[in-house]
Specification:
single chain, alpha+beta, three-stranded antiparallel beta sheet
Length: 151
């Protein structure tokens, strides 16, 4: 697995909201849940968990929308692109949609979640698969394994 060359800038579809990551991901993911399928209008959503101190909105003001405010899904208020997620109670990282970034060549999902809801044809190539989310106690090991692979 390759790490991105940092800093890395990105933007929504219309370009009004801009972001920057300046820290490597803790973990990369694909989620097959039906909520992500609907929000992304695709078979799954992609995420890169970026440490909070390594993420910034550099232009524009995203809005929180989606099924619940607690989920913390942030969108461009103009083009409504789903850009990133700040899950309530998990302030140490931001789940960035990697397709917002100017360079996506480094991205590969390391884990895939909600395979219990995945579409029959959907394949991600992720190293680890989970029927729902990994148990909380697995995340430390997964983050360490991702870092070792990316080194």
């Amino acid at each position: 697995m390759k790490q991105p060359t940092l800093p890395l800038d990105g933007a929504c579809r219309c370009g009004r909201v801009k972001i920057r990551i300046s820290a490597p991901p803790l973990l990369t993911m694909a989620c097959h849940c039906t909520g992500c399928q609907r929000m992304s209008a695709s078979a799954y959503s992609l995420s890169a968990a970026i440490p909070s101190e390594g993420f910034a909105v550099t232009a524009g003001e995203p809005v929180v929308a989606g099924a619940s405010r607690e989920a913390g899904h942030h969108f461009c208020p103009d083009c409504m692109t789903w850009m990133f997620t700040r899950p309530a109670g998990m302030d140490f990282f931001v789940n960035v949609r990697p397709t917002m970034l100017e360079d996506t060549g480094w991205f590969r999902p390391f884990i895939e979640t909600y395979t219990s809801e995945k579409l029959a044809f959907a394949a991600t190539g992720a190293v680890h698969s989970y029927e729902k989310f990994p148990p909380m106690e697995d995340y430390e090991t997964l983050v360490a394994a991702y870092a070792a692979r990316a080194a």
